[in-house]
Every structure is written in structure tokens, then in C-alpha cells.
Amino acid sequence: MIRGFVARGWTARIGFLILVLATSLEASSADVSFSDWLATLRKDALASGVRASTLDAALTDIRPVPRVLELDRKQPEFTLTFQEYMTRVVPEARVQLGKQKLRDNRALLEEIGRKYGVQPRFIVAFWGIESDFGRLTGGFPVVESLATLAYDGRRSAFFRKELLNALKILDEGHIAPKTMIGSWAGAMGMFQFMPSSFLAYAVDYNGDGRKDLWNDRADGFASSANYLARSGWRPDQTWGRWVQAPKAVDPAVVGLGVKKTLSEWQAMGVRRQDGGDIPSRSDVTASLVFAEGPGSAAFLVYANYQTILKWNRSTFFAVAVGSLADRIGDG
Predict the structure, then answer these.
(1) SS3 of 206, please?
(2) What are phi and psi of 291, to 5 degrees?
(3) CB–CB of 102/126 below 8 Å?
């Protein structure tokens, strides 16, 4: 009883100290006015090669956006289960629309798929999940949002770099400041690239001198395919497959750190989701992962699954992309 009381007392004190420290860190930006902070940022942008005219157009009269801070601070009231997530992200309506989008853009998608070695159904799946096929690309001015988060102090280093990258994108003439719109955290366009990803992977596929990930499907499709290809995508494999795992599976063989051939997984009792045998191939290695721990939805995942994780490090997201691509199909 006494030990419990002491432990709780120290926990409360530590929690108070953490709160004070966090408060002081968040308040640190108040030591410098936003206008002074912006002046320093402008100097750094000029030093990096961004033109003064670009900075005048992008930074004049901007100010912190309270709604961005509100969304950044907001904690979800509950966490979606895997089934809830899949129901929300891969509904039947999205599957059917994805099939239509694949048909409507087949020639372009197949051309880009051949060039970059990425199956068209995966390009469409990323498109669907990231922006509902370009319908939901965000409604926040990217420069203002990033400036708000960079000035705020919580993750200022990360967002300051992204803001400088956004200014470089503007300076290169890919889009105008007023039309550089994205999510509250600065993700942009039909595939929701952060500015750093834009600079690293965006492609001017139609050759018009601009990398337009907001309105030009050719540029958007090619940029997403380029991202995946340069992140290690294998055109000769899919992402993985839903499976049934033995109830008594050894925890030591679960996870991305363990790879076995499909024949080895078959011998250990792993079966297709419908109970049938998995392909008896010895030239493909896979890892066994669970959505929410042993006993939950199970998957054998291949190299492309890990490439999807480079896009978004979420098991739910990676399975959703793969599942949507499977249901869209290439036929």
C-alpha cells in the first residue's frame, strides 16, 4: 500500500514535470514573433537559392492557422479496429469506382506501368486510398499550414524543412502559391506527397515543364510509380495474400524479420484464406504478419508489402492497398 502510494506520487510528479517541460517547449515559439521567425526563414530560403520574387508571392501576409494547430493537437477518441478500418477504407463503392478508373485510364496506366515496372492496379489503389481518386486532396494552403506547424515548436525542425521544400517547388514553377493546396499537414495532390517526396519522386511525364500532381493524371500516375519503383517495387510479384495461420503458431516466426518460402509456410500449416493449399513455390519468400496480433487476420507478405510500408508505415494501410488492388484487378 505504501509503495503503491509512493509510486503514484512519483508518477504524478514526473507527469507534472513533463507537462511543464512540454508547455515550455510549445511556448518557446512565442519568444520570437511570427514575423521575425518568418524573416529568418526567408533569409534561409534565399540562401538555398529560392528567388526573392517567389518568397514575396508565397510569404506575404501569411499568418498561423489556428485550425491547423487544432487538428495537430487533436487526439482520436477511439482507435479503429482492423475490420472497421477496412470497411471504411476499402468499401465496395471504392472497389467499383477503382475498376472504372482502371478502365478509363487503362492505356496510360499500362504505358506507365511498363515504364516503371508497377502494376496499374496498385497505382489505382494508392490513388483511391490517398485521395478517393483525386476527389479529396485537402483544402489548406500548403505554405501557410507548414509555416504554422514549423513556427509552433512541437515538430518545428521537420515542418521547417518541408516548408523550405515547398518554397523550392514554387520556385521551380510547378504550381502557384494560391493553388498549392493540400492537407493540414502539408500533403499534396492526388497521391498526397509531402514536399520532400515531391522533390525526390515527382515526374513531369507529359513534358510540359511542370510536375502537376494536383490536376494532371499522367504526372500523378508516373510520380507514384516512380516512388514505388525507386523504393524497391518488384513487378514480378504481388503484395501478399490473406491466409489462415495455425492457432499454435510459434511467435518466433511471426514478423517481417523472418522470411520463409511458400513451401515452408505450407509445411508449417499456413493455408489460403479459403483453407486451400498455398502455391508450392520455393522461389518466393514471405513473412507472416497479423493485423492485430496472434489470432487476428493473418497475411503472408512479400517484398512489395515492405515497399508499401515505405510509403506509409502502417500494417492497416499496407493491407488496404494490397486488398484494394486485388479487388480492382487487372482483367
Answers:
(1) coil
(2) -70, -40
(3) no
**In order along the chain (331 residues), what is the average pLDDT of each group of 10 residues?**
34 36 43 94 98 98 96 78 96 98 98 98 98 97 98 93 98 97 97 98 97 98 98 96 94 96 94 92 90 94 98 96 94 45
Distance of CA 320 to the CA centre of its chain: 12
Task: Tell me which amino acid residue 168 is.
Answer: K
The answer to whether the predicted template modeling score (pTM) of the entire model surpasses 0.90 is no
Instruction: Tell me the C-alpha distance between 5 and 10, whole Å.
Output: 9
Are 326 and 261 spatial neighbours (Cβ–Cβ below 8 Å)? no
Taking the C-alpha atoms of residue 80 and residue 86, their distance in angstroms, rounded to an integer, is 9
Whole-number Å distance between alpha carbons of 309 and 318? 6
**242, containing H or E segment:** strand 240-244
Nearest to 330 by CA among 232, 235, 199: 235
- Residues 290 and 296: beta-carbon distance below 8 Å: yes
State the cell numbers at 130. Answer: 490517398
C-alpha cell, 320? 488496404
Q: What is the pLDDT of residue 8?
A: 31
Estimate the share of the chain in helix, then strand, then coil, as percent rounded to the nearest 5: 55, 10, 35
Specify the pLDDT at position 283: 81
